[in-house]
Amino acid sequence: MAAQYDIRRDPNGWTVYDTISGEPAAVNGSAQIDLRVEDADDLADLLNRLHSDNRPWHRTDGGQAVLRDGAGPCASRTTDKERAPSMGNGR
């Protein structure tokens, strides 16, 4: 399977981009541009791993990955089981 995300050189650093659309990848609405090569490479690897996990993501019109249940942008990928228990009122 071809990688969904890759990196390319830009005038001020490196960009992580979607290989299908050609657009820069967005994390929490922020385009992943002007990065150090090490950071861009690590982020592209992470996004490709998350993309290949067969998680229930879909793309919005803006190209941002969100949970199909609408739970939020791609940075909010923890499940209820992965979240730390609440310390407050026991909920």
Describe the protein's architecture and organization.
The protein has one helix and six strands; from the N terminus they run E-E-E-E-H-E-E. The protein is α+β, with helices and mostly antiparallel strands. It has a domain of 63 residues. Strand 3 and strand 4 form a beta hairpin. The protein is globular. The C terminus is likely disordered.
Along the chain, the helix and strand elements come as EEEEHEE
Question: Per DSSP, what share of the residues sits in E-state strands of 2 or more residues?
Answer: 15-25%
Helix content: 10-25%
Shape: globular
Total count of strands: 6
Give the distance, in angstroms, between the N- and C-terminal Cα atoms.
42 Å
The number of helices is: 1
The biggest beta sheet is recorded as: 2 strands, antiparallel
User: Segments where pLDDT lies below 50 for 5+ residues?
Assistant: 67-91
Radius of gyration of CA atoms, rounded to a whole number: 15 Å
